[in-house]
Write a structure and sequence with these properties.
The chain is of the alpha/beta class and about 600 residues long. Helices cover about 60% and strands about 10% of the residues.
Length: about 600
């Protein structure tokens, strides 16, 4: 088992990890569209943030009063006033912090939920070719892990960055107002702080993107192994899978370790430079106090503001690392949101698909899958299915049978020719309206992690319980459903693992019956079943096919016996067509398939 392709390879070429910091972080502006609907709360949060910054800065004046008027004058009244002022400021600070924290955290939760919903809503409508080159594990990592990271950034780190920036600017103003000479000492250290932030910030962002991609690979590998757990255990490959997964985890850990190392170096360097500057400032300021050039209160206030500047810069340097990770996560999410859907409804729908008769025509259709552009899946195919008739598609693996279903449902558009419904090119129809006329019963039915009722009702969500039960009866599924622990409310497990193959197939048929389609597509619906299950499923299919235009991909003679016409396919083209007897006389390929695949049925 191999892990999915690294998402590193899927990074668009225009995303340059070595671009300037402001350009790289500008990707975060893409989040504005999700924040804009809540601008009222954002403004309130900003007001609370500015309020708390101003209140915090006023604490420095309380410190000056405490030293100059309380300690220096030995006055209890002045000391009491200074202490009460600091206490009052503390209460205001608590109120402002509560308001800011709640509003910003709410905004983070709300925006991340909206992004998650927007990405999923977009992904669920994308053309199937997108999923041929993008693993489900990577997509899920973007929807869950990356949006959770953005939630933390918007709800915490971004607020911290703004607060620290305001505190830094405000504290710098107060430093100049308190003592210009000491302020110049502090400012001399600023270039030494910016250099490591810019240099290591670039490394942090590059490693952040790699870290998120590697975690997506870990999730993809784990999901694949768990999905195929029976195969893994059947071949006793548990130890090898453990080792392979461990290798993936270690790769992710190594990238994460390097990212953390760069951030740690950045933070440590800033701390050394900042507090080194404060130490120098204390030497100069202490000398001025001793010589009487400034008061102890001014020095105390100056130290308080200098510490605010230092802590703000340290916070900003740390948050920049978080913002770099947020930029990486935003890139990955915006990549998905910017993927164009190749299958779109016409700009002006002039034909109502529901009014069309279920007559299907493939007219000189040629098609190559996007992931295999040099390999023809369908070549100059011409085929007609009359209303209410049953067409069986027969041919070796890779002949193009399943591709016909995918083109008919317009999961892909042909490069040449046209697929027509009642003479109308299906590209001129709304894909949803087109698919509403069809129901697919695949070889491996897709059941959801829910109860029986939900899985059958998936065919027509507005159906009543009575209609669901009636569909189950027609699908010969009602009997075994009633014997389940909770009947129609029984939970089926992931992919319906609690049911047998025949039972899952009959649930899928019941779903198709409930949908009541004009066109029925059966993809080898009985090929993997035992004789008894096939008998029940075949009875259900007879009920389902009655008076419907039906196309069957057939691997068993029992399904061909119902066909009005049989099309023999090879290399993406129809090589012959007719009934069983005529094809046995005229088509060598059909004769060979009958002898190889249908021998048991013939006997």
């Amino acid at each position: 088992m191999s892990s999915s392709p690294s998402t590193e390879q899927q990074t668009p070429e225009n995303l340059d990890v070595n671009a300037p910091v402001n350009k790289r972080l500008s990707i975060l502006m893409e989040l504005v569209q999700f924040v804009r609907p809540y601008k009222g709360r954002l403004i309130a949060a900003m007001i609370a943030l500015i309020f708390t910054a101003v209140v915090m800065l006023s604490v420095g004046q309380g410190v000056r009063m405490l030293i100059d008027q309380g300690f220096a004058q030995q006055s209890m009244a002045e000391l009491k006033s200074a202490v009460l002022f600091i206490l009052f400021v503390t209460v205001l600070l608590a109120i402002g912090t509560f308001t800011r924290f709640y509003l910003v955290s709410w905004l983070g939760e709300r925006v991340s939920a909206d992004i998650r919903r927007a990405v999923f809503s977009h992904v669920i409508t994308l053309h199937p070719s997108y999923f041929e080159t993008n693993g489900s594990g990577d997509i899920m990592s973007r929807i869950t892990t990356d949006t959770t990271l953005l939630q933390s950034i918007i709800g915490s780190s971004f607020s911290m960055a703004l607060r620290s920036a305001l505190m830094c600017v405000g504290a710098m103003v107060m430093l100049f107002a308190t003592n210009i000479k000491l302020t110049l000492v502090v400012l001399a250290s600023v270039p030494f702080i910016l250099v490591p932030i810019l240099f290591y910030g670039r490394k942090v962002r590059k490693l952040s993107r790699k870290s998120q991609d590697s975690m997506a690979d870990v999730g993809s590998y784990a999901g694949e192994a768990i999905e195929h757990i029976k195969t893994v255990q059947s071949y006793t490959r548990e130890q090898q899978e453990k080792q392979a997964f461990s290798d993936e985890v270690e790769k992710a850990f190594d990238i994460g370790r390097r990212r953390v190392m760069q951030r740690a170096i950045l933070i440590a360097g800033v701390i050394i430079i900042v507090f080194g500057a404060i130490t120098g400032m204390l030497w100069v300021g202490g000398s001025d106090v001793i010589s009487g050039k400034m008061s102890g209160g001014d020095l105390g206030a100056f130290v308080f503001y200098a510490i605010l500047v230092a802590s703000s810069l340290a916070t900003i340097s740390e948050v920049i690392g978080e913002l770099q990770r947020a930029a990486g996560a935003t890139e990955r999410l915006i990549e998905i949101l910017n993927v164009d859907n190749h299958i779109l409804p016409p700009e002006t729908t002039v034909v109502d698909a529901s009014l069309l008769q279920p007559v299907i025509t493939f007219n000189e259709v040629s098609f190559n899958y996007p992931s295999r552009p040099d390999q023809s899946a369908i070549s100059a195919l011409t085929l007609t299915v009359e209303q209410g008739k049953v067409l069986a598609l027969v041919g070796p693996s890779g002949a193009g049978k399943t591709t016909i279903f995918e083109l008919l449902q317009r999961f892909y558009d042909p490069q040449k020719g046209s697929v027509r419904l009642d003479g109308i090119d299906i590209r001129s129809l709304d894909p949803k309206a087109l698919r509403d006329k069809m129901a697919l019963v695949p070889q491996q039915p897709a059941l959801f992690s829910s109860d029986v009722m939900h899985n059958i009702r998936y065919g027509r969500p507005e159906a009543t319980d009575e209609e669901v039960i009636d569909a189950a009866k027609k699908a010969h599924a009602h009997g075994f459903i009633e014997n389940l622990p909770e009947g129609y409310k029984s939970f089926l497990g992931e992919r319906g693992v609690r049911l047998s193959g025949g039972q899952r197939q009959r649930i899928a048929i019941a779903r198709a019956i409930l949908k009541d389609p004009d066109i029925l597509l059966l993809d080898e619906a009985t090929s993997a079943l035992d004789s008894e299950s096939e008998h029940h499923v075949q009875q259900a299919l007879e009920q389902l096919m009655h008076n419907r235009t039906t196309i069957i991909i057939a691997h068993r003679l029992s399904t061909i016996q119902h066909a009005d016409n049989i099309a023999v396919m090879d290399n993406g083209a129809v090589v012959d067509s007719g009934d069983h007897e005529s094809l046995m006389q005229s088509c060598e390929l059909y004769q060979r398939l009958v002898h190889l695949q249908f021998r048991g049925g013939l006997e």
